[in-house]
């Protein structure tokens, strides 16, 4: 089916909390589907925190996977991966002896829900909570990878009950994630009896959303790569052989965390680690962009007087398009990283560097601006820790160069 004009057919991870807050009011179970590594799980966790905060006035959530149980006034998230569960792991059939009036007993067949489900046994009520006062989110991940569990979920998500002994507590909200059958991730199409009992929403990440969500934590090189290459580097599954590593929001953040902890791109072992996380295409582009520093010998002169070197700068911009786009884009990535390093040394050079950036491409200017703002936020955070004045962000926003850039590129910030 083609795209229906004017209809929102998918949402970004940052919009998931809004959807969950809305659906939770009537406890309408939701299945977030979409390609692997697009951030469905962390978005659902963010949604649980949003429900706790906006609906119940509770800050933070309790993660029950470690065995913790919520206390009065706390909100929990009970997270499980459905691929490791069989139907009997959710609801175990058994015979039990039931005492009748007088001296008689009888054998009763029961289907008892497992205690890992929220509110299914007394451990959930050990802190004085009751069935009515238990508040939280039950997050079932990867439900599409075990078709034999579909009937379990169809019963639990619609009737909000399971077996002969379990009713979902009235203030527990059920959320699921899954890939689509066509994503090559081992998922199956949901059966009709399940799909008709839930709200299904497609979640797909995008460059703008990814950059905004992780703006304060991205390594300069990763920020520059994604800012310049956009979808071509953020999502590379289609370029890699099936079963091999590929780049996506999840895998990029793994590389980002490793880089913040000393991963060295000149170390062959570390290069192999990167390759094993984001695949061939993204790794090659990343290493090539990092090695482009030596290609521009007149950068200092161009930054000192951009107007004097206008034609030279415009030539660099043209080289990032058309037949020369591959090496040209690598060069732009390298330039963004270089400017970022210089800005850390002297933030007052922003007006001059932004003038240079605006002469290149809009993507380059926006990526450089995001990097500069992230640096300003980091300086303010550090100043606050030391009890010093934190005014880097304010100074940047008051710069005419910043204001002019935002006006010129308003579509990137809307």
Notable traits:
414 residues, alpha/beta, two-stranded antiparallel ribbon, 17 helices, elongated
Q: Which stretches of 5+ consecutive residues score pLDDT under 50?
A: none
Which band does the percent of strand residues land in? 5-15%
Radius of gyration: 26 Å
What value does the average pLDDT take? 88
Write down the oligomeric state. single chain
Order the strands across the largest sheet as they lie in space. 2-3-6-9-1-10
The ordered H/E elements are HEHEEHEEEHEEEHEHHHHHHHHHHHH
Distance between the termini: 29 Å
Number of helices: 17
Helix proportion range: 40-55%
The count of strands amounts to 10
Q: What is the structural class? A: alpha/beta
| Main sheet record | 6 strands, parallel
Shape: elongated
Overview of the structural elements:
Helix content is 44%, strand content 12%. It has 414 residues and is an alpha/beta fold. The chain has a six-stranded parallel sheet with strand order 2-3-6-9-1-10. A two-stranded antiparallel sheet has the order 4-5. Strand 4 and strand 5 form a beta hairpin. Helix 14 packs parallel to helix 17. The protein starts with 15 loop residues before the first helix and ends in a 6-residue tail after the last helix. The model has no long low-confidence stretch (mean pLDDT 88).
